[in-house]
Each structure stands twice: as structure tokens, then as C-alpha cells.
Design brief:
This protein has 152 residues and is mainly beta. It contains two helices and eight strands; from the N terminus they run αββββββαββ. The strands form two sheets. Strands 2, 3, 5, 6 and 7 form a five-stranded antiparallel β-sheet that branches. It has a three-stranded mixed β-sheet with strand order 4-1-8, with no helix packed on it. The N and C termini lie far apart (77 Å).
Length: 152
């Protein structure tokens, strides 16, 4: 059996397709700034959600940083292109979960992308979602205390 040598056009086409395919799935750097941090204690916990079906239940990515002071806590993460919503809370009591009252209202400072708010419940995924492509994305969220007594 004779093997035909690859011609230059075939090699260039394969390399070009490989390059374009890799670019189609390139991750973007997403910088998330959580603003209005008023307690210089605990950890800021950021969770990333990629669909409405898991929104505020089980995120695809969770990161935490020690809060070093008041003002802003910044996260930098890599995400593939898609639609995402972000939720952060300041874990003042150190239990790793957002503390809520008996009807589910947050008792620790919390933030949602697009500063989305809910009406008689949590905000919807579609109101909090942000499109991420290949270009870097900046997300700014304002931390708010909804329930009373945000201290541990």
C-alpha cells in the first residue's frame, strides 16, 4: 500500500482548523468585585452558576477569600464562554454556609450579579446572568445586608 505524502494545503488546513477550534473554546478571565464590604472579618464566598436549574443551590465553582478589610473583595476566575450568574456572601460566623432566618432571608451580607433582586423571594437566574465570551469580563456586585443583625 502506497502512502500519499501530505501536501502543503492539507497541512495548513489542519493547523488552521486546530487553531480555530482551540480559539472557539478559550476561557475568559472574569474579574468579580464585591463592593461595600462593611465588616473586616470572615470570608467572602463566591459561587458561580451556569444554569437556572442549579441557581442558588449547587454552583459549578466556589471560591473563598479571607476578608482583609472594608471596601472591596476581588476574585479573578477563568470561565469558558457561556451564561453565568454570580452570588457572594460574607461568611461572618465561619460555618461555610450563608446563614438565613426561618423563612430563608439571608442573615449575612450577600450580593448577586447585576445587583438583581427578587420580589417575594430570591432573584431569578435570568436577571442575574451575564454573558461571558472570550474577552475579559468585569462584574461588580454590591454587598447588602437584607436581614437584621448581620454580625455572627
Amino acid at each position: 500500500m502506497l502512502h500519499q505524502p501530505y501536501n502543503a494545503v492539507s497541512v495548513v488546513a489542519v493547523l488552521l482548523l486546530g487553531f480555530l477550534g482551540a480559539r472557539a473554546f478559550a476561557d475568559a478571565t472574569v474579574t468579580v468585585e464585591v463592593l461595600n464590604v462593611s465588616h473586616a472579618e470572615g470570608e467572602m464566598v463566591l459561587t458561580v452558576y451556569d444554569s437556572g436549574s442549579n441557581w442558588l443551590r449547587s454552583g459549578m465553582l466556589r471560591e473563598a477569600q479571607t476578608v482583609g478589610g472594608r471596601g472591596t473583595v476581588t476574585f479573578s476566575i477563568e470561565l469558558p464562554p457561556g451564561e453565568y450568574a454570580f452570588h457572594a456572601f460574607q461568611d461572618l460566623d465561619g460555618n461555610g454556609r450563608m446563614r438565613t432566618n426561618f423563612i430563608g432571608i439571608p442573615r449575612e451580607p450577600t450580593a448577586v450579579s447585576n445587583d438583581a433582586t427578587g420580589r417575594f423571594g430570591p432573584p431569578r437566574f435570568r436577571d442575574a446572568s451575564i454573558a461571558v465570551g472570550e474577552a475579559p469580563v468585569s462584574v461588580r456586585m454590591n454587598l447588602v445586608s437584607i436581614g437584621r443583625n448581620p454580625s455572627p
